[in-house]
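Reviewers asked in the last cycle whether our approach scales beyond single polypeptides. To address this, we selected a multi-component target totalling 792 residues and predicted its structure end to end. The input consisted of the following lines:
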Amino acid sequence: MPETYITRRKVVQFGLLAGLISTFISAIGMIALFHKREMISGALSMGQYFLFLPIAIMAYIAARQSKEKEAYLNGVLAGATAAIPILLLSLLGYYFDLRQFMPNVSDTLIHEILNFGQPFTVGAPLMLAASGLLGLIAAALSRMREDYRAAILQGLLWTSITATFSEIINDRIRAFFGRNVASLFFSSKALQPVTAVVLLIAISIYAYWNARNKEREEAILLEDVRAKKEPGKAQRYLKKGALFLLLLFLPLLLGTYLSEVSTNIGLYIIMGLGLNIVVGFAGLLDLGYVAFFAIGAYTVGILTSSTQGIASMTFWEALPIAVMASTTAGILLGTPVLRLRGDYLAIVTLGFGEIIRVLANSDLLKPYMGGAQGILNIARPSFFGVTLSKPEQIYYLVLAGIFIAWFISARLENSRLGRQWMAMREDEDVAEAMGINLINTKLLAFGIGAGLSGLAGAIFAAKLTSIFPHSFNLIISINILSLIIIGGMGSMPGVIVGAIALVGLPELLREFAEFRMLMYGALLIVMMLVKPEGLLPSTATLREFADEDEEEVPA
Amino acid sequence: MAMLEVNNVHTYYGHIHALKGISLTVKKGEIVTLIGSNGAGKTTTLRTISGLLRPRQGNVIFEGDDITKVPPHDLIYRGLAMVPEGRGIFARLTVLENLNMGAFSRSDKDGIKEDLEKVYTLFPRLKERRSQVAGTLSGGEQQMLAIGRALMSRPRMLLLDEPSMGLAPILVESIFETIVDINKKGTTVLLVEQNATMALGIAHRGYVLQTGEIVLSDDAKALAENEMVQKAYLGIE
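The resulting structure, written as structure tokens, was:
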């Protein structure tokens, strides 16, 4: 609990902020577009969900920071204040035609969403009541016992996720259990109301039970350690085995579309693991990482295309060459920039990334690399006579790539080389004084990182069978860097979480077109404010942030 | 025979002539101090010896070998360890991890263990705090850690860059006592210091550096009594 409690003024500010966010996303048309997608059939649309979400969050925060007696009052107050800007928009929209100034304020928004299909005189009090009630509920939640609250928050989170993706989940359940089973839970594209409630309760109970179990397990583990027993080794193997089996059969569960999404995520995981070596382990900021991805892809393209390039190898013959080519490129790039640090290094690598893309696009190399038309008819890989062409098949190629990248990263992290990287990341001069050869250490980081990117590029080329220069934009480098930061710098599990969040989610939210990037940006900002160390930080990063916290609170 | 010999070294930062022909020697078993005010070139001299800077002219001889062009990371394998200015500990690692990094150049596990115990005897505080994150140590403890880490490479000669920087007088005293201790156990020390009183108090011989040139060199005792040194560095009028 904070030592200083929130003032009334601050509560009103929180409420207004929430209201302004909601009003803004309404006015730009996001809410109306999202309203077309139902989350809970007949009860809640995605538009309504996002309209009220900021209000609930802000009321929750306000109540959390209040004195015990004032929590409910502050929750309601924040909720009700949040309604004011929304009501203002609603009022103006109801009596005037705002579309001259705000083309995205639609009739649907004003009448159906903001006024609940009622005239303004009825809709406005309803909106005020709804916001206030939501504030009250959020306040009640914030006052709950810690373990209950954590469980219910998890329940809400997972129910929201299920409801958001209910169309996809519904489709999968239908494929396996038939239309009848699916319609028990879902109405075409949304959750059934009863299912939603059941799901919320079930997940909350599970989360509660799970948290308690974990506590107990940790206690047992501690005893095991005291008694010098090998702690839960069999169980860990069991878990790993189960995960492996799940990954092996995942495409069967996912179907074509989700398998396609998974392979995209997987390619980013391979690249993320590679860049994590360069940035996370060795601390070298590389903004041109896409270059090695391009080199891997183009090498496979040039060597295997049946109509272009210089050879007609099979994918498996070209793959090691592609990895070697990108590793070499990594070392070549590394050599001139050995003396550069931090920002300077970032700028040079940025330039390198662009050079590769421009080369691929150039007329000079058109006979080999196809210029803007790219390389077509790249060979598909075949495996014991089976040609891998469907996403469900490519999935396994990507999975194997992830295993290789994971294995290399994990082995290196705790090796002698891993310690060299770590020392270099912390302080180059001191590392050198410790006897670490910075040249070798840097070049190995660049080379291995680039090699993994090349591996991803090779698979990418084989997956699409055609590649174009514009697929190798700066934005890919930025994305990979972002997913590492989101997941937690230097953390390998963080790369996977980051890739799912930054590559998977935007893919699944494709129908929301331009608002997707708005949400993506907002999510990044919020993430960095709330969890700057990343979702699954490495121990070293955790320590750093722990230190900063300690400094803030003088002992 | 001299263990370390610096012969007529000229070092530049771009166009700035930072060291204008420095020559000094350190004999085996000695503590030699290099004193001088801010910007006199003390750290530059150390960085030149340790290979972080390349001199345009002159050479550096360590145990008979010319090390002028030897890369910095090789020196530790030759028995020359440096404690950089501002300590430069690995703030996110624990004390023990820092000490183990100090032994990076070695692979004899038993010897490393032995030296770890020696460092712990020298600095009992480090043993108490061995699993603490180094960034959370106090300034004095960080300096102890930096020295302890350098000792983990079992050097024959230790280069110390301003170990008194930013420390309370009582801590400086204890650190300097430890330096004497280390020296008595057989490690030769080249100590760069701004705190001339303390440095001359423990050193055998000293050099006075002024704007990139050595203006005086003598026994430490004689230097402490020298009028010019007293005026300029010891604050005695």
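Residues 92-154 of chain B form one domain. We regard this as preliminary and will revisit it once experimental data from Aim 1 are available.
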